[in-house]
Structure formats: structure tokens, C-alpha cells
Amino acid sequence: MSWGRERGRAGAPRAGGAESGRVLLLLMAAAARAGAAGRRRARRWRRSRSGSGPGGPEPRSPPAPDYEALPQGAAVSTHMLAGAVAGVMEHCVMYPIDCVKTRMQSLQPEPAARYRNVLEALWRIARTEGVWRPMRGLNITATGAGPAHALYFACYEKLKKTLSDVIHAGGNSHVANGAAGCVATLLHDAAMNPAEVVKQRMQMYNSPYQRVMDCVRAVWRNEGAGAFYRSYTTQLTMNIPFQAIHFMTYEFLQEQLNPHRQYNPGSHVVSGACAGAVAAAATTPLDVCKTLLNTQESLALSSNISGHITGMANAFRTVYQVGGVTAYFRGVQARVIFQMPSTAIAWSVYEFFKYILTKRQEERWAGK
């Protein structure tokens, strides 16, 4: 049944959109305040650097170490360790919301799996299926997120610096940030895609799988090894624009809120949340198609569709055939609510660990 024919749910997208909009406005206001504070700090910093004062020029103190650029000789493992911790934290903390998002993107949900909003979905799932039901599949997600994000952040940092030096020597290039994010996504999705397939099948309503290995064996036996990468091209088609928008928005906001790139947790949280919200809303139609390819909903397959659904073009046609235009935006509220704190957590944890690891390495060098 399409959304247009569900009177009980007709107001949900508008209510969810308004709720998400209010949250985004609050974040933008916080970003403006943080930006003003950052500019004031920058002016004070410039005045202190100029040496002007009643007592004459003051001796300049040595500049604070730039944790954004790791010290010479620092191992790539620093970025990989920080990225792995950030990825596991991001996925684990927000996993119940991700479960709701997957269900809300279902093209033809059963009556018991139709939800008006995220909070109602969490309440009903916990009440009817058990408190721990929204956490099913968390172990495989954490297993995939660690190495995927380690590769992701290490590749991003290396390429960002290399491309920025080529495009805009000595400065920051938004094109370099976007390109580095796109290339890093290739490695991230290659490591994460099998975990995504298993996770989403376990998240669906009435999923027959209780354990991860049960799902892995069933998919391998019934659909072959290729099923674990059936949605890979669609995942890339979604994640490449998502990450390009995400990284460019994040780096742009960092320039406004934290121009000297010092360790500033508030700016990392606000920039990450805003970047995640914008990128998530823009790429929701592609995420709906990815969910269809990963889950291969039996109800969709029974709607005069034979065989497995493969490829993004086929998924787009199927989504439109089953649910119309509105089906492309199913779960947009849950996706935005999931991505805003997820990206905020990922960036704040990543920047924190990068700062700590860099600081410790510099202290070791200073002690030599």
C-alpha cells in the first residue's frame, strides 16, 4: 500500500520533516554562535600575534601543534585506530534508530510494522518483539565498521592532504575534500557491504534469522556469494554523493567555526551533525533502493516481479512500481535523525582520538 493511500500515516512525513527541520534550525543557530565565538578567538589570536601593547612587542610563544596535520613520521595507524574507534562508536550508539530506518523504508510493510514516527516504532518494537530486538545484528555491524572506518579515515586524510597540495598549495580545497571522500568510500563500502546485507535482513520485521551465522549460511546457500555484494554498486552510487556532500559541508563549517583548526569539540559536533543531516536528506532515494536490494522483500517480488532484483536501475523501477514517487522518501525522518548524531559522534570521537594520539607522540619527541 502506498503512502498516498494510508490516511493514518499521511501526516507522518510532514510531522517528521517539521521535527527534523526544527532540530536542523537549532543546530544552525548553534553553528552561528560557535562561528561568532571562533571569529572572536581569531581576532584575539591575531592581536596577540601582532605584538602590539602598552609594554611594546611581546615575545611570541611557539605556535600550538597542529593536530589536524599529524607530525612528520607519524604512522598511518594513528588515523586507522582513531577511525576504527569512531566507526564502532557511531554504529553501536545509533543502531536502534538504524533498525527503525530499515523497517520504515519497507515498500509494502505488514500492518504490524507500519509506524508513524521513530519513537513510536522503537516503543512498539520493544513492547511486541522484546527490548533487545532493535539490537539484533549489532555484532556483525561492529565487526564490519571497525576495519571499514579504519580504511576510510586513513585514506581520506592521506588523499585530502595530497590533493589539497596539488589543487591549492598550502590551503584547503573543497574539491580535494570531496574527491578524497569519494575515493575513501570505495574502500569503506568494500569492507562494509557484506555486513550491511546481513544486518538489514536481520532488522526486517518477522526476520527468520536469530543469529548472524544463520543469516550468512542461508544467504550463501540460497543466493550465492554474490548476494553479499549485490547492492555494492548502488551503495557506491549512494555513498559517493553522500560522502562528497558530507565532507565538503563538514570542512566548510570547520573553516567558519574553527578557522585555526584547533581541537574544538563543539565545532566538531555541530559541523558533523549538520553535514550528516544535509547529506542524508539529499540521498534518501538511493538509500531506499539499497535497502530493497539488500533485503529482496518477498512482497515486492510477488508484485509481478520475477527473480532477484539486481542493479540500481531495476531497484528504482521497482520502488516506483510498488510505491510511487513518495516511496523514494520513505524513512527520510529516521535517516536524518540517525545520521545527525551518527556523524556528530563519528567526527567528535575521531578528532578526539587523533588529538590525543598526536599529543602523546609530540610529548615523546619533546622528551628525547
Automatic annotation (TrEMBL):
Keywords: Ion transport, Iron, Iron transport, Membrane, Mitochondrion, Mitochondrion inner membrane, Repeat, Transmembrane, Transmembrane helix, Transport. Its main location: mitochondrion. The keyword 4Fe-4S does not apply. Residues 38-49 have a biased composition (Basic residues). It is a multi-pass membrane protein. It catalyses: Fe(2+)(in) = Fe(2+)(out). It comes from the Eukaryota. Solcar repeats lie at residues 74-162, 172-256, 263-356. Residues 56-65 have a biased composition (Pro residues). Transmembrane segments: none annotated. GO terms for molecular function: ferrous iron transmembrane transporter activity. One of its GO terms (cellular component) is mitochondrial inner membrane. Residues 35-70 are annotated as: Disordered. PANTHER family: MITOFERRIN-1-RELATED (PTHR45758), MITOFERRIN-2 (PTHR45758:SF20). Belongs to the mitochondrial carrier (TC 2.A.29) family. This is Solute carrier family 25 member 28. It comes from Malurus cyaneus samueli. The lineage of its organism: Eukaryota, Metazoa, Chordata, Craniata, Vertebrata.
